[in-house]
Amino acid sequence: MATLEELCVQAGLKMTGQRKTILKVLGEAEDHPSVESVYERSRAVDPSISMATVYRTLNILAELGLVTRHEFHENFSRFELNMEHHHHLIDVESGSVIEFQNEEIELMKQQIARDLGYELVECRLELYGKKIKN
Amino acid sequence: MATLEELCVQAGLKMTGQRKTILKVLGEAEDHPSVESVYERSRAVDPSISMATVYRTLNILAELGLVTRHEFHENFSRFELNMEHHHHLIDVESGSVIEFQNEEIELMKQQIARDLGYELVECRLELYGKKIKN
DNA sequence: GTAGCTGCAAACTCTTTGCAACTCT
DNA sequence: AGAGTTGCAAAGAGTTTGCAGCTAC
Q1: What gap in Å lies between CA B82 and CA B70, rounded to an integer?
Q2: Cα-to-chain-centroid distance, residue B35
Q3: Does the model's pTM come out above 0.70?
Q4: A116, B54, B85, B119 from B70: Cα distances, Å
Q5: Is the CB of A37 under 7 A from strand D?
Q6: For B30-59, what is the mean pLDDT?
Q7: DSSP state, B61?
Q8: Which residue has the least CA–C1' distance to nucleotide C6?
Q9: Nearest to B95 by CA among B70, B66, B121, B60
Q10: Per-residue pLDDT tens for A24-70?
Q11: CB atoms within 10 A of CB B94
């Protein structure tokens, strides 16, 4: 199982200090950080990193499919490492994000796409909900 | 069954010429127009309409829940009238959008949210696919 | 050595907003 | 009449990019 860094090198990227830092930040993130967050966390490690580099790196990673870009109806993007496939439930009151998986839905997605004459390439499912109080 | 205009009036909006035009454009749209598109189509009817008004109107309509804002991973928003609930399959090659409905998925969404302790408020499901050639 | 990467600042794109004039009701 | 709406132009926010210097390989 290749590490993130190895995957990047395989893709022909140079392993600069900045990239290592950003990859580390992404690897340690337990949330879905905005570019701003990735920038701040990276800066805490290496204060010389610029916003431009963070943007450039995230775009490259997204293109390589190592990272997923989300738009949870905010006016900016959030990113997360592309680990196992899952979906999101966004708490409309707090903005917090819960991940979930569901095998049945995976199968149905495939089926729906096929029925429409398409091969499923990607998919987003976002539930927006209010916490039920007891 | 109230018309769009009636719903707006009920919500306390004044029925100006510009708004009538924009509502007409939205009502006639068979696609998921960008703000730019709504602007152009509205201008064809009434050339005095400004971009600012289109933005303002779409935002109000979205707030009233009469219109849905989409972000299909472009760098701008698309809108569509909030008619019956459905989801989208986006052709990754042509960018064209196909609508679909699926009762089973509706039920599962509800179930998943409830299992996580949430009341489902809204939901987005987007499939991205490649057309299967025969 | 050199292709690729970086920081900086300027540029871009989409969207929002302050304001004075105007218009539905 | 008056609150709400509009067009305009300027401002905002997030993101991208040109360039000269730097760095991994």
Answers
A1: 11
A2: 11
A3: yes
A4: 21, 16, 14, 22
A5: no
A6: 95
A7: H
A8: A53
A9: B70
A10: 999 999 999 999 999 999 999 999 999 999 999 999 999 999 999 99
A11: 9
Q: Which residue has the tokens 């990859």?
A: A23
Give bridge partners of residue A129 from the DSSP assignment.
A91, B120
| Lookup: nucleotide whose C1' is closest to A71 CA | D14
- The integer distance in angstroms from the CA atom of A89 to the C1' atom of D19 is 43
pLDDT digit string (tens) for B34-46? 999 999 999 999 9
Q: Please give the Cα distance from B77 to B124 (Å, whole number).
A: 14
DSSP single-letter state for residue B107: H
Task: Give the pLDDT confidence of A81-131 residue by residue, as tens digits.
Answer: 988 889 999 998 888 899 999 999 999 999 999 999 999 988 999 999 999
For B132, nearest residue in chain A (alpha carbons):
A118
Task: Name the residue among B108, B100, B19 with its Cα closest to residue B59.
Answer: B19
